[in-house]
Amino acid sequence: MHHQPHPIAPDQVLTAAQMRDAEQRLMDAGTDVHTLMQRAGRGAAEWVWRIASGAPVTVLCGPGNNGGDGYVIAETLRERGFPVQLVAALPPATDAAKRAASLYSGPVVDAAEAKGTVLVDCLFGSGLNREVTGVLRDMLHELSARHHRRIAIDLPSGVATDSGELLIDELPHYDLCIALGAWKPAHVLMPAMAHWRQARLVDIGCDTEPGGARLIGRPSIAAPAADAHKYRRGLVAMVAGPMAGAALLASRSAALGGSGYVKLLAQEPLSGAPADLVVLRAPGAMTLPQALSDDRIAAVLCGPGLGRDHQARERMEAALNCGHPLVLDADALTLLQLADRADRTDRTGPLVLTPHEGEMAALEKSFGLSGKGTKPCRALCLAQSAGAVVIAKGADTLVASPGGALAYAPPSPSWLSVAGTGDVLAGLTASRLAVTGDPFRAATEAVWLHAEAARRTGADFTAAMLAESVRDAMCAAL
Ligand SMILES: NC(=O)C1=CN([C@@H]2O[C@H](COP(=O)(O)OP(=O)(O)OC[C@H]3O[C@@H](n4cnc5c(N)ncnc54)[C@H](OP(=O)(O)O)[C@@H]3O)[C@@H](O)[C@H]2O)[C@@H](O)CC1
Ligand SMILES: Nc1ncnc2c1ncn2[C@@H]1O[C@H](COP(=O)(O)OP(=O)(O)O)[C@@H](O)[C@H]1O
Ligand SMILES: [K+]
How far apart are the CA of 145 and the centre of ligand 3, in A? Predict the structure, then answer.
């Protein structure tokens, strides 16, 4: 058979509907479902083969095409002389699954008899459309408990593809999750993504799907131009409030994130600022609006350590009014109201909002949004309403643009769950915004650098240690 080379899109993240469209496109171009299932199943079998290393494998098959993949995996292992047995939880119901089942010539056993070392879960994949209950749930639990290692094909059976929600009581934990064709949102969303140790992608020939989201990868950061000077490299103005620590953390990561100059606009006298940070009292010799009127400012950051009183509101007003590209974080997000943005759409430049879950809920309330739906849908909705790029933080951080672009962070170290790491991310975002002028690019670069800084800091760090590692993360992206 002659194979056309095809462009692989290993970083795309497709919803169940987008995945169906991508498969349809392949079929329109002449590849039938059977061939796709063979590619998926045989590709997945390679991983199963490596993990099992000769130990007995049990494949649990459901009625749909996920079950069909299971028959292909089982037959591939059998052909290679591996001990394999198959449990058909329900008979195959699709044409492709029936055909795959007819080509399997190994043993089929009752769930009660099935014993082995590795369980391959092909009960349900992206076609799961309701809670897994009763006999099927019990079967998955019992077989999972009876096998030392577990591998999920496409997704664990009990995960909603587009939201990452669990549709089963007590979803088992897996050693490996093998995504087929493309990553799905559930591979990068909580709580689903906490249920496996590693995930791998098997390519089945899908091209880049229009409108698909992507996984954030290592950015390519250029060294400053040969004729660079500190202002052209990006001047970040940090609007500080009464809690100086947060502003200092953000300033530090802004300084190490590539900008040429960071100016901290302090509300109160500041002690303990590092020698390489320029601190200006505003109001002091200048009011804050005067300090922010400097044309050389390339990005303003407001929020870390700002507070929520009337002074905080005035300072945020000044930041919103100054017209420079702006990053709003922390307290500024709880102060921001619909009117703040709606009145100014023609006056403000790029805007980035960096909410964690609580701030996201507060923003949705202020913008009159329902807060219902999947995390990516909520972030896209907020981005559109606020006319801002939104970094929706958490263990499953994602970035949404007002134009509908979506990018997911790959899993990042859970050591980030310590106070002050959000300030470091905000500083990095402002820094990348000052350098690139592009809010979506700045947000995705900052998210990657933040996680890379965490990886390079190791275990059990403080936010100040993380901020110092931004330098190593930058070096890794040069
Ligand atoms: N299409 C392709 O080209 C390729 C697809 N590929 C593979 O196909 C997978 C998607 O296949 P799929 O769409 O057939 O769905 P799948 O996940 O097997 O389940 C659907 C079945 O389950 C049933 N059902 C659902 N929920 C249930 C519940 N809670 N409790 C009980 N029953 C429930 C549902 O029944 P119904 O809703 O009709 O009652 C239906 O019968 C995908 O993940 C990938 O592995 C690859 O081979 C590459 C090529
Ligand atoms: N379990 C986790 N795994 C990975 N990243 C996490 C986890 N918990 C939090 N983070 C990241 O740590 C940062 C915390 O920010 P935030 O909630 O604003 O905290 P703070 O206000 O204390 O700085 C965010 O970038 C978030 O994505
Ligand atoms: K599965």
Answer: 16
Q: Are 176 and 152 in contact (CB under 8 A)?
A: yes
Which residues have C-beta within 8 Å of that of residue 475, sequence separation ≥ 6?
none
Question: What Cα–Cα distance (Å) separates residue 63 from each residue in 20, 86, 164, 201, 213?
Answer: 18, 13, 22, 23, 29
Distance of alpha carbon 248 from alpha carbon 291, whole angstroms: 18
With a CB cutoff of 8 Å and minimum separation 6, the contacts of 275 are none
Q: Whose CA is nearest to atom 18 of ligand 2?
A: 422
CATH number at residue 196: 3.40.50.10260
The pTM of the full predicted model, rounded to 2 decimals, is: 0.96
Q: Reply yes or no on whether the pLDDT at 421 is more than 60.
A: yes
Q: Is residue 467 part of a domain?
A: yes
In angstroms, the Cα distances linking 121 to 71, 88, 178, 219 are 11, 11, 10, 35
What order do you get walking across the sheet with 118-122 strand by strand?
84-88, 57-61, 118-122, 149-153, 174-180, 196-202
pLDDT at 5 over 60: no
Q: What is the pLDDT of residues 146-169, one digit of tens each?
A: 999 999 999 999 999 999 999 999
Pocket test for ligand 1, best of 124, 131, 153, 161 (most atoms within 8 A of CB): 124
Range of 404's domain?
Answer: 235-477
pLDDT tens per residue, range 55-109: 999 999 999 999 999 999 999 999 999 999 999 999 999 999 999 999 999 999 9
- 223 assigned to some structural domain: no
Q: Please report whether residue 201 resides in a domain.
A: yes
Beta bridge partners of 153: 178
Structure tokens at 383: 């981005």
Residue 454, CA distances (Å) to 186, 409, 410, 476, 477 in order: 23, 13, 13, 13, 14
ipTM metric? 0.97
Atom of ligand 2 nearest to the CA of 421: 23
427: domain CATH number is 3.40.1190.20
pLDDT at 339: 67
Residue 228 lies in a domain: no
100 CA from centroid of ligand 1 (Å):
14
Pocket of ligand 2 (CB under 6 A): 330, 356, 393-395, 397, 412, 414, 416-417, 419-423, 425, 450
